[in-house]
Amino acid sequence: MHGVTVIELDLDTPLDPDAARTPPPWRYRRLGLLLTLVLLAVLGGAATPSGWAWRYLGDLPATEARIQLAGGRLFTVERSGGRRLLHAWSLRATPERLWTTEVPIDPEVGMFGPLQVTGIGGVLLVGEGRETTVLDPGTGRVRWTAPQRMLTGSGGTGVTTEAIFRPGTLYDQDSGDPGRLYFSADAQPHTEPPLRTEVRGLDLATGERRWTFERPGSVIVEPLPDGDPAVLITSSDRLSLVDARTGELLREAALPRLDGSGPGSASLLAGVALVDYQEAGKQVGYDARTLDRLWTRDLAYTLDPADCPGLLCTGDRDETLVLDPRTGKPGWRLPAADYLSPRAGYVLWTEASSGTPLRLVDARTGEPRTDLAGWGQEVTAPPERMLVLLRGNRGGGQVFGAVLPGDPRVRTLGVADVEGRDCAADDWHIVCRDGARLRVWAYRE
């Protein structure tokens, strides 16, 4: 399943960047950790299968920035005077630095902002705030930069958006004047909605613009899941499916007004476009590929809504109701207001206040599958790939385990002799912060 991204459309509801609730502190551990863990064999007790082995590789200097793993490499960020340096490390044997390059600093997020490194289409994307820097993965050389966030997922094409506002509509924040405000991609408030939004397809290797697609007002752009080379563009009056390689319009569907009001926000979940009509109190589901209308349901607004990113759900502090995104109908109920999230084909039930994983449940029925008692923390991983957990070891250090699609059992990977729990993993390694060092273990030959 895929997470939900939401943007406010300007037809009826202005963009409100402060509307989202602040998540509890433990949730921030989840953000930005690139954790990809693939296990292809079943463990027999504590033993590892052929081809798998837990071994210590070595350590390297730690920095204040969070651990970044991408493409089998480790990336660290270092401050040097007024510059910010990105180091790439090989983890094939003992950690070895491959290259160092300087990356721009977004003044609004500072030296150690939420830097995100992603390998795709033969390049490295370094994203922070609203900017993207594209690097050569072999040398670290900067190929090109974009002043917008980059959407990927469609092969060698990156997609950016830019809202175009009428001159003279920038809001004077010192005035305190009341009224609706509409925010641009650079978070600048305007007193009018944008005249139009330009969606651009860029060659990831060169930065060359391949195509431009325009819509009046604000839009949301989402790459379709499962590597489909298309993007879904939602505007205030229609859905548009566009070929990400060429910009060709593949199909469109009009979005009707309900009870006299148009849509206020939209999101994409599990191949279903969810269009919300806040003023009418309705949500409509569309097939993201065919744009066929699937269902309509009433929206229930509460002061303390259910917390379940990556799922379609409703509820309050006493109960969570999980819905089928293809039908909009109730699937199963949880008699609590804890945190739910899809993991490895199951749903992880986490205690909301502490972040402690409680159990895995069946994604279709909600029936319990695995009791996670004793496991103290989740290590974030791509939800469709696996669930990675850690817990304290009786003899010291941390024990790592993983749940794979098709089998809800937790399999032990190994023990890292560190006391801290700031760790990340990829297909071959687990990296943990240990004071002023980052220590690296391999669990796969």
Commentary on this structure:
The structure is a single chain. A hairpin with a 2-residue loop joins strand 37 (429-434) and strand 38. The protein is globular. It is built from no helices and 38 strands. The strands form ten sheets. Strands 1-21-22-23-24 form a five-stranded antiparallel beta sheet, with no helix packed on it. It has a single domain (7-444), classed as Methylamine Dehydrogenase, Chain H (7 Propeller). It is mainly β and 445 residues long. Residues 1-50 have low confidence and may be disordered. It holds the Pfam family PQQ_2. Keywords: Membrane, Transmembrane, Transmembrane helix. InterPro entries: PQQ_rpt_dom (IPR002372), Quinoprotein_ADH-like_sf (IPR011047), WD40/YVTN_repeat-like_dom_sf (IPR015943).
Mean pLDDT: 84
As a whole number of angstroms, the C-alpha radius of gyration is: 23 Å
Count up the domains. Answer: 1
- Overall spatial form: globular
Q: What CATH architecture label applies?
A: 7 Propeller
What is the CATH C level class, in words? Answer: Mainly Beta
Compose a concise summary of this entry:
The chain has strands spanning 7-8, 52-61, 68-70, 73-80, 83-90, 96-102, 116-120, 123-128, 131-135, 142-146, 151-154, 157-164, 182-183, 189-190, 196-203, 209-216, 220-223, 230-234, 238-243, 249-254, 265-269, 272-277, 282-287, 293-298, 312-315, 320-323, 330-334, 339-343, 346-350, 357-362, 368-371, 377-379, 387-392, 398-404, 407-416, 423-425, 429-434, 437-444. The protein contains no helices and 38 strands. Pfam families: PQQ_2 (PF13360).
